[in-house]
Amino acid sequence: MPDRAKTTPLPVREAHGQPLVLVVEDEAALVTLLRYNLEREGFRVIDAANGEEALLIVKEQRPDLILLDWMLPALSGIEVCRQIRRSPEHRRTPIIMLTARGEESDKLRGLEVGADDYVTKPFSPSELVARCRAVLRRALPQAETEVLQYQDLSMDLATHRVRRGAKDVHLGPTEFRLLRFLLENQGRVFSREQLLDHVWGRDIYVEPRTVDVHIRRLRKAINIEGAADLVRTVRSAGYALDVNI
Fold first, then answer.
1. Helix (H, G, I), strand (E, B) or coil at 42
2. Is 65 helix (H, G, I), strand (E, B) or coil?
3. DSSP category for residue 142
4. Residues 31, 224: Cα–Cα separation, whole Å
5. 94, 113, 143 — which closes off a domain?
């Protein structure tokens, strides 16, 4: 499956050079696959086969990103995530849960204990790499480019200018914030309630259906004749910045 998102430079810690990824997974074949694809894309990789080993490595080597399997022997991925988030030193370390559990309630549970994202098995290695880049950009904002891009759509954060191909796109403030959030989380599906929390804020009461109105306005503004619809609607789930295929 080809990468859908444009490749962007990896944000890094100057002391280490390449970002260090800790893969916490007890399936050796999957560890090998992940290591190959991550190292090919410029990451350094270390691995742990169980939760206890993972917690020790986090303390000693301070990885930039953790890929954490949900189903681990002895100490579950959920508990590992919970313990990492309790530590002042590591509470901001990005964590992506790897899980075969596809139920929405399970995914929400992972996010509630502190995971930044989740990927359901089986997954595309190229999608996982894109998710890794996205969470690292969010965790290290000082290294984030001022231009967000997906396909032929770009957003210049410094000038607040949005373009689709050679065409300027004019957006209202809410549509701009909505598009920025989707650009920063390419390919990930968000429910109306999640979009309300992230774009409008938890302290503002807005009807969930209001999201639909702004999504329609955003679609009308960014979609051009003969080009792909960049906003995907997932029935009973939500919306994503993702080419409809």
1. coil
2. strand
3. G
4. 42
5. 143
Does 126 map to a domain? yes
Question: Token match 């916490």: residue?
Answer: 24
What whole-number distance in Å separates Cα of residue 66 and Cα of residue 20? 9
Write out the residue range of the structural domain in which residue 79 sits.
20-143
β 95-99/65-69 pair status: parallel
Torsion of CA 61, 9, 98, 68, to 10 degrees: 10
Examine the domain organization and report whether 135 and 61 are in the same domain.
yes
The reported pTM is: 0.53
Q: Which two tokens stand for residue 50?
A: 């169980």
- Same domain? For 162 and 116 the reply is no
Helix (H, G, I), strand (E, B) or coil at 186: coil
Confidence of residue 80 (pLDDT cuts 50, 70, 90): very high
Last residue of a domain, one of 143, 176, 194: 143
| Nearby residues of 102 by Cβ (< 8 Å), 6 or more positions away | 120
Q: What six digits make up the tokens of 191?
A: 């429910």
| Cα-trace Rg, the chain | 18
Q: Which is more confident, 225 or 234?
A: 234
The rounded distance, in Å, linking the Cα atoms of 66 and 46 is 10
Q: Is 117 left (phi over 0), alpha (psi -120 to 50) or beta?
A: beta
**Long-range pairs for 199-202: beta carbons < 8 A, 24 or more residues apart:** 199/174, 200/174
Asked whether residue 194 is assigned to any structural domain, the reply reads yes
Residue 189 · residue 211 · CB < 8 Å: no
